[in-house]
Amino acid sequence: MEAGATTVVPGGRSSLERSAGGRMPDRVLRWGLTALAAAILALLAYFFVRLIGQSEDALSRFGLSFVFGNDWDVSRNIYHGAALVVGTLITSAIALVIGVPVAVAAALFIQELCPRRLRGPLSVLVDLLAAVPSVVYGLWGVFVLIPKLLPAEKWFASTFSFIPWIGGGTVTGPNYFIAGLILAIMILPIVSAISREVIATVPAENKEAALALGATRWEMIRMAVLPYARPGITGGAMLGLGRAIGETIAVVLVIGNAPLIGHHLFNQGYSLAAAIANEFGEAANSQLHSSALFAAGLVLFILTLIVNVIARYFVVRGQHGRRTAGATGMTVAPVGDASA
Hints:
The protein is mainly alpha-helical.
């Protein structure tokens, strides 16, 4: 029999070719997964359309001033949510500034510097932060963080009063900073977990090449690990931002719930999610109030979608860059070689 020859079975098909019945599980799996993906998209579209319908009264009455006006007064039925949007963005930005460096540092330590036998337990400990209920974080912030950090906040505000928005002014207990700090702790597990997974994908030959050229451990991390993992870390940070934007109960307890734009870091504020949680019960008696809260949910939904789209962009861009670099080849210059 000649090499490569195949046996023909009854029906005129090759013995290596699967029958129609044998291929059916693959088709069912493909159709099932396609249907699930389409159902998720349909559900998102339904949420979006439903929110628009429920918020129509508020949007038709206030228009763009709902987002850019700064006057949220339930007693007068005036709903301009700039203070809510600003509070949401400020607390989320504080969470990113504090939480992402700590999460990435923890991921680098666990993956690159930690003894191998301790990697598993430390990873589990970091991930367990995600299992703590948000109300527990909020209560911890109220009874521990606010009284303990108040003297330090007053000192910081008076010492750095020359820095606009950061220093000066009257320091209150619940404020933007406490809310951002709580959110930083809450996003740490997801950012750290994604960063660990991305750092683990760095090719060993990249790290070994840097060390062989005389790089220290830190220089190897800076030159070989971080550039390769940067897109994934950025995507993880954006997903953490989406988590911070939508957080409700913990923020309700520590932000102060004042529907005003604070003049400095240690002022009380409000957020979109906090307003929905606080006022939805009493809004049942007012159609305009209820519509305004749905409009706040719509703005929150759009912000979350934007954050996830940006995260997806960075992940796809990083994957494309790595494929391009792998196809064209890269030249690694010795450490300290100025001609590289």
